[in-house]
Amino acid sequence: MSNRPVPHARLAAEFLKDEPHRHFHDERLWDMRQKRDEQMHIMPEWQELREQASRLKEHTLAHLPQYLEQFEENARCNGIHVHWARDGAEHNRIVEKILKDHGHSSIIKSKSMITDECEMREYLEPKGVSVTETDLGERIQQLDNELPSHVVVPAVQKLTTDVAKTFARYYNTDPNIDDPHALAEAQRNAARPVLLSGDTGMTGGNFLVAETGSFVVCTNEGNADLSANLPNLHIATLGIERLVPRMADLGVFIRLLSRSALGSPITQYTTHFRRPKKGGEMHVILVDNGRSERLGMDDFWTSLKCIRCGACMNTCPVYRRSGGQSYGSVYSGPIGAIIDPTFNARKFSTLPFASTMNGSCTNVCPVKIDIHEQLYKWRRVLAERHEIPFVKREIMKMAGRLLAQPTMYRLAISGTEVALKTMPRFVLYNYLNPWGKHRELPHPVKETFHSWYKKNRLNRTKTQREETQA
Amino acid sequence: MKIGLFIPCYIDAFYPQTGIATLELLEKLGQEAEYPMDQTCCGQPMANSGCNRDAKETEALFIRNFSKYDVIVSPSGSCVHHIRDNFDAIEQTDEVRHVRKNTYELVEFIHDVLKVREFPWAEFPHKVGLHNSCATLRSLRTASMSELGEPFFSKPKTLLSAVKGISFAAPRRPDECCGFGGTYSVTEEAVSARMGLDKVTDHHDAGAEYIVSADTSCMMHQQGCAERNGVPIRFIHIAEILNGARA
């Protein structure tokens, strides 16, 4: 993995250049936000649910070892094989081993952010294992060899015309037919034989239930159920933070999840996996991959409450105009910007700055993660670790010194006035001046407030005072 | 009540009329406000960039300028948000706590502290689009937030509703950030400017002749975007309308 900071600003600028994509992306995600609002409005208990969900998650995270062990014990009693993976590499080796033990070599899998996080495909494919994504969006991203753009709608940055071209390359379909139904049909036709012949099914999972040793997968396409149930071997990968203590707690999250994500009351499929099917085998791999470490971070541990609904992405005005690819990570948008630096502070040092700090993300978060406040805190952490550009650091040092000295500051202000009046337009608006690239500068004024006040209040007050004294 | 007037740098340098209107309005409302001459900035640019340590001396200066006042009033929501919620580069002495606790954004000061609802001298016969900055909306909470579905309220709109002749446009995305974001406006200028253009277009399409706001920084950015793209819309600070500006 390259360690160079993700050039979010540049990638976003490129994304913005294409009008149809920009427009579609913004409107599509805004529509999801609107639908989420509609759901919220018809549920008077919405804020109460958020509060409950937040508390449940905080409680669970505070007692994580205990609940994880409870899950493990109950899952084993149910006949599920439970594995622990410290990191992505260990996860991938576990999958490889399970496949090897069965003599398997083809995985059909449903969408799972965490296997992307572990870079599982990249690990398994060179070893002769075929991995086929069965979620439509995730499949499109796989064919184009791109990371998911969004946690719920992974290919949302693409238009149907893009998909038609991609499918034409791999499925031999007509590149000019971009009718969504035809495209879905093409995917179905391509996926069915693979689904039927795949020897291993893999899924992610939305929730682990400690009390029952079961896990829950929420999807809309039904592909997870096919992936899990067609082969005799089912491997599910989940992060250790997916836990809820009791089955009764699940309702709180199920009610919030799809409403926050897509604005639909519930996902089409909410599947509870409790034990392997007859004659089958079921494995659950519990992945840490930095989560324990994050749990120990005072300022950032609550980001582990995330249920991956993507509501923060949908509402984020920056994300909507940047596209998920500009974040250079499996997790993009506001939630990505606060968890990605825990994986690699240098590479993702730009992401906490890819925000206006408007706070809309925090307001829509169904588990009440203070996302924008964590963005703010990350900026401090990154600046202190010198993970912000040198020039910016120097400018801030200079600004800090200048703004602490009223006399020098006054001189500089008069300099600005003079500059705005006298500098030729090409100097102010050249490509080095990022403000002027797409914006006009403020108009020059005759005098500052400071000098107006001096003339109209200070001097007047003085005269008045003298008059009174006289 | 001894009021210290905080006029942030960009208002001082580029929008003095906003500072003047703020002072005159407070005077019309029977208040005596003083502008400490050695003031510069609240430290937000450094703090927002993560360089909180570099804000320390600026914050100290701010305290030296303003600790003697009972309240501090500023026509800039984002600066007030910084002072109230994030001003922690310096040691939190009683003096600092006093300043942070008693700094008000102009609209909330008039609405909550002075509790004034009438501005008989004010008349603004135009259709306006009200821009709630993210700082006033989601930090100072001077209006209801669409994400929370709370009952509608808006302190700036309550005040503006007392102005003769004024009417309000209804943009499609009233709560959407305009993209200024302080240094964000230059570090991610393309996204920032796009957001600004979308914002002014939304207001213009809703029939607004003016965008009115309690945050000049947002409007400085929006004005730049509108002028560059030829969106015919004007900008005015809420202080100017409440103080009696006609256009």
Automatic annotation (TrEMBL), chain A:
InterPro entries recorded: 4Fe4S_Fe-S-bd (IPR017896), 4Fe4S_Fe_S_CS (IPR017900), FTHF_cligase-like_sf (IPR024185), Helical_ferredxn (IPR009051), LUD_dom (IPR003741), LutB/LldF (IPR004452), LutB_C (IPR024569), NagB/RpiA_transferase-like (IPR037171)
Lipid biosynthesis recorded as keyword: no
Superkingdom of this protein's organism: Bacteria
Keyword field contains Protein transport: no
Domain annotation 4Fe-4S ferredoxin-type: ranges: 297-326
Keywords in alphabetical order: 4Fe-4S, Electron transport, Iron, Iron-sulfur, Metal-binding, Repeat, Transport
Name of the protein: 4Fe-4S ferredoxin
Species in which this protein is naturally found: Bombella mellum
Lineage: Bacteria, Pseudomonadati, Pseudomonadota, Alphaproteobacteria, Acetobacterales
TrEMBL record, chain B:
Domain of life: Bacteria
Provenance organism: Bombella mellum
The Cysteine-rich domain, residue ranges: 4-84, 129-221
One Pfam family per UniProt: CCG
Protein name: Fe-S oxidoreductase
